[in-house]
Amino acid sequence: MDGNELFGQADLEAHTQFALFLFHGLPSSAQCEETNRITLAYFLISSLDLLRTLPFIDKTQIIDWVYAHQVLPSSRSDASDCFNGFRGSLFSGAIFSPLGASALRYDGGHLASTYSALAILSILGDNFSRVQKHSLLMSMRKLQQHDGSFTSTHMGSETDLRYIYCAVAISVILKDWNGIDKGNAIRYVMSCQSYDNGFGLSPGLESHGGATYCAIASLFMLGCIYMDPLSKEASSTLFDVKGVIKWCVQRQTKSGGYQGRSNKDPDACYAFWQVTRVAGSLHLLGAGHLCNVNALENFLGKCADKHGGFSKWPGETPDILHAYYGICGLSLLGKPQLKCLCCKLGISTEAAEKLELLSQV
Amino acid sequence: MPSSESDASMEQEEEEKGKHNEDEEDSDAHMDPKEEDDEEDDDEEEQEELQIKWVPLSKRPEWADIQPVSQDDGPYPVVPILYTAQFRETMDYFRAILALDERSPRALLLTEEAIRLNAGNYTVWHFRKLVLQALSYDLWEELKFIERIAKANYKNYQIWHHRRWTAENIGPAAMTTELQFTEEAFLKDAKNYHAWSHRQWVLRTYGGWEEELAFCDKLLHQDIYNNSAWNQRYFVIKNSPFLGGVGAMREHELNYCRDAIAVDSANESPWRYLKGLYKGDDEALPRSTTVPAIVLIELQKNKDCIYALDLLLELLCLGYEPSQELIGALGLQLDSCSAFQIATFVCTHLKEIDTMRMLYWDWRLNALSNASTS
Asked: Any residues with CB less than 8 A from the CB of B335 and at least 6 apart, and which?
């Protein structure tokens, strides 16, 4: 399939139809993603936004649905450490209310769900009037550990760069850094850098495209990467920017797609997923132009399904995650039919600009 | 891209891998007689039994006193999932037990049923911990339970998190079983990120460093391209209390890299590892005699060796002055070459042979000339 054919109007319409189809209902095989439902919604809504087809869905209903996931402060004695962010779904028994619901027993917000919820609200142009910002940020701070990392919920979880990214993005969206000890977070991110200049998910682990994206996007938003306005070159006092750029460009394989780790079979399952992570990191480091776009476009073409959506591998069934990253990939390739992607926040630049204009959250 | 951050996407990614691996495992099981066929079959049977013989909780007398609590998705559910009847009812009863905070043997069984339907539900796992504690449950038995669950999914964050919690609560006595548990995971996928993370935690918390370098060596003998094993090797030389750190191990490791590179000079991992031995110590790199010797050996074998040329360029940028032999290996005239000219030559050559990264090498070439003019 050549580039023109792939990105023609008919193809974009098929991608929209695919996203809308899933938006209205997922098969029972998605049960294992039950706790991440709000993130699945974010993938689909952001896809539609990038495709300029948001008007096909009802914003008011979605905004109410998102707010229903907000965990409101509770007077329960066992809820004093509860994270007042957003739930991933209403599985723990909260009653639906367009303002949110107080924490039940063993109920609470999740950092990734909270990021997804705020991203959806930003995309839909909500003004955050119902967000309980103060309690959200104060309780988020309690999730930060001594080493600077975050757990995802107050009940504990593994801690790694994904949750640092979420906490940082939440702070940027809400324009308030009171929910995070920045210095400590920066130290943690840097402790995850590996001997080969990429970043692992936690200290000592192997460099990984997703982790490297989380690290670079976080450092970018934490003000640790300086972009020279004239040369457009990035620099940092914390790490060797050119070393990270090199690690990223070396992830592009013969197929044109990106591998997530050195020597991972480029043809194996999740090569596709890395496209936007690694290419996105390059963009954030002012080196987006170093990506071989022709090869990448070719690779994306092979994974696009003619009925819409993208699959992890040519010929396989498309799914939400790959469909979303495929669309992000098209956006990063600079396809004029799509909105531009704001690499640091994971929403369209248009939505990010609207956020900027919100004077007070 | 946004959601590299997100739990869901990473998890889904891992799950994708999990599914992929399951497929592989299926075929492997038939080919490799060492696979524990019987056990696998038992597990499959067990799964099937659960599917076929599932009795709705509402029909079980022991649950008659519980009023199930349904999920309230509101008037306009977004991305609704078409839950199976089994999933819906199990979760309805789980919600009821959660609200009652009932830490009982039947609650423990219910968490198992819920976990088998969705091992990603962190609240179910959390509640299971509380029940285990309340019942003073034997945590060695819990390790066995996790093994049964993990068989179907070695790439699930919540399972590994629960594993760590259980091992943490058992204490140092769990060291051996935990190292073995990761080794079982590596039999299925020697690059399993969760398993490596768990293994590093075990080493840091309970020790077991003595055999770890040999373990890395064993995995690298099985697959010299396994970057996860190279990473673990670095983790060991950096953190093992018995080896003296990266600096002390450097020469030893350079030799190890030399041998690995000799097997296949297009293997990125040993080259990256070699360069990593000098991380944070850029000054020592151009002073090394071993490193240029490795570059020379490989360029004499193949003057288009990308990683050797790449490393040579790094050396030149750090002020290394190449030997006559090295200049000769590049096919250059000895007398007419400044360091800048050699670097330009290497970079131009890389641009020609590493076509996927043509733009990158062009960028490096520009940086070289800018540096020389400024």
From this structure: none
